[in-house]
Amino acid sequence: MVVTEIVDKLQDSLNAGDVDALLDLFAEDAAVTIPALSPRTGSDQIRALFDFCVGIKVRWDFKESRLTDFGVECAVDQFDGWANLMGVAPLQYEPFRITIADDRIKSIEGSWSETTLMTLGQAVEEFTPWALENHPELFDGDGDYRYSRQVGAGFIAAAEEWMSLKEGRRG
Predict the structure, then answer these.
(1) Which pLDDT score is estimated for 143?
(2) Range of the structural domain that residue 117 is part of
(3) pLDDT band for position 139 (cuts 50, 70, 90)
(4) How far apart are CA 17 and CA 98, in angstroms?
(5) What is the total count of domains within the chain?
(6) Which of 85, 86, 93, 152 could pair with 110 in a Cys bridge, judged by C-beta atoms 3.0 to 4.6 Å apart?
């Protein structure tokens, strides 16, 4: 498979919520490191991560892609249910690196843009302590997200509840 086909299939599979098709693209020892989510290594952890992403309704829009010696570097706009509710979508990754070897994704590494860091900071600082207190089932014992599709959907429900409470305080 050509590198650009792998990247197109990555975007299409995530946006369609097809975790099995996503996993077919990854090497067994692959790693995914993106902000706000702890690094995931290996197919079980990557499956759980992408199940979580499907649960929060993540959609990636790749742009400005360029081939490199290691694979592809691009910018990515991420839309998801949580970011949409919080009014901080899209979350922008700059750069977003996809390393490819032997027709498989070896790693994904993303960093948020300065714009995203500025707009996201306040929402995360306000929401996270509230969610930890009111919805501890969404987190593990270390305060990290639990990774599953159900927990992702739970984050959307918690965000809706939080926004409703926040609006009620304003009203």
Answers:
(1) 83
(2) 3-162
(3) very high
(4) 19
(5) 1
(6) 93
